[in-house]
Specification:
Length: 268
């Protein structure tokens, strides 16, 4: 995703610096090798920059110990936000996840309604989802204290043309997992587009937004899946079986996000 974001920004005339532990293939105008746990180093390279997109994290439970994941994701994000505030970077995008809601890694829960939107309370159970919820709390606190503009983008599984087929097959083989994910996804190009557009928000404060594809990967089996896995959940008037079960209406209203890539029910 980081590479896609750098390409997206480059296409739209941004001068970019990539702060990472591995080179990006010369996609950024400047590359700085570093670790987000080194807050002083983060602050040094951020000085003089106007905007920040924070994507660095351990991306799933099981990728590292729960203790190390929590340190990197929570303390790392805290230090990035603190560094940005200290050097005057006031416009920030922070990558969160639908896992903050409680999807994917925790037990399946019944939302109050579908499609899910930002009004559904967060209910994470695993260390990854909890780390994302804590990061959102920190974003709200930093925005309030330092008058920052922070867009919190909650992504589902990010795919591209090389991985979507495997992901679709994985969901077909594990119907319980597919339901816990709400059959959701986002193409990496749409995720990158959302990051760029979210930089343009003018309102001070921190606000979460769901960023998904415009459809779902359940195909013709969605209605049966809803009856099996989400019995009794109310469907709002705007709910359509061929669309994402996670609403992006807030992102569309706030900064014009409209997913362009469809790998599921609308792909034909």
């Amino acid at each position: 995703m980081g590479r896609a974001v750098l390409q997206e920004l480059g296409r739209h005339g941004y001068a970019t610096t990539n702060f990472d532990q591995a080179p990006d293939g010369n996609l950024a105008d400047e590359y700085v090798r570093g670790d987000i746990l080194d807050g002083e180093h983060v602050a040094r390279w951020l000085k003089g920059h106007e905007q920040l997109i924070h994507l660095a994290a351990i991306p799933a439970p099981g990728s590292a110990s729960a203790d190390w994941l929590t340190q990197v994701n929570v303390l790392g994000t805290y230090r990035v936000l603190a560094a940005a505030a200290s050097v005057g970077v006031s416009r920030i995008v922070v990558a969160s996840s639908v896992s903050a809601l409680g999807l994917a890694w925790g037990r399946r829960f019944l939302p109050a309604y579908l499609p899910i939107d930002e009004g559904i309370p967060l209910q994470p159970e695993d260390e990854y989802g909890v780390s994302k919820q804590i990061n959102e709390i920190y974003a709200v606190a930093f925005a309030r204290r330092y008058h920052l503009q922070i867009a919190i983008l909650r992504f589902p599984t990010i795919v591209d043309h090389t991985t979507v087929g495997t992901f679709r097959a994985h969901l077909a083989a594990d119907r319980e997992l597919a339901a816990r994910l709400l059959w959701s996804y986002v193409d990496v190009q749409d995720a990158a587009q959302a990051c760029r557009l979210a930089l343009q928000i003018e309102t001070v404060g921190a606000q979460p937004f769901y960023i998904t594809g415009r459809d779902n990967l359940a195909g013709p089996h969605l209605e049966a899946g809803l009856h099996e896995y989400f019995p009794g959940v109310a469907c709002r008037p705007n709910f359509k079986l061929d669309r994402s079960l996670i609403s992006t209406t807030a992102a569309e209203a706030a900064f014009g996000y409209r997913p362009r890539v469809a790998w599921g029910t609308l792909s034909g």
